[in-house]
């Protein structure tokens, strides 16, 4: 709800606390954190969480999409700064 209201930082704080919970609730929190980090162009943090989610069978496809997207964005940034 906080994400929908544009309160990204507050939402990220709450999600960070939840992500350590085992099981699907923790995975959902990680997924929302990936999206929040992507919105803020924090690719390092997003990539770390996406790679964690890749280890979970039910999240593998979505997480792989995020990893591919993040790597493409990083390559684009590298080209732009060169």
Primary descriptors:
mainly alpha; 0% strand; 82 residues; single chain; flat
Description:
74% of the residues lie in helices and 0% in strands. The chain has 82 residues and is mainly alpha-helical. It has one domain (8-81).
Shape: flat
N-to-C CA distance: 39 Å
Structural class designation:
mainly alpha
Poorly predicted runs of 5 or more residues: none
Rg, Å, rounded: 13 Å
Helicity, as a percent range: over 70%
How many structural domains can be distinguished in the coordinates? 1
Number of separate helices = 4
Percent range for β-strand residues: under 5%
Give, in order, the helices and strands. Answer: HHHH
Mean pLDDT: 86
Number of strands: 0
Question: What characterizes the major β-sheet?
Answer: none
What's the short version?
The chain is mainly α.
Describe the secondary-structure layout.
Blueprint: H1 8-18, H2 24-39, H3 43-54, H4 60-81
Helix pairs in contact: 1-2, 2-3, 3-4
């Amino acid at each position: 709800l906080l994400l929908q209201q544009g309160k990204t930082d507050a939402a990220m704080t709450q999600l960070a606390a939840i992500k350590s919970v085992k099981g699907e609730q923790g995975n959902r929190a990680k997924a929302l954190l990936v999206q929040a980090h992507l919105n803020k162009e924090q690719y390092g943090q997003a990539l770390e969480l996406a790679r964690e989610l890749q280890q979970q069978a039910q999240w593998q496809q979505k997480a792989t999409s995020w990893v591919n997207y993040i790597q493409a964005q990083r390559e684009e940034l590298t080209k732009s700064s060169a």
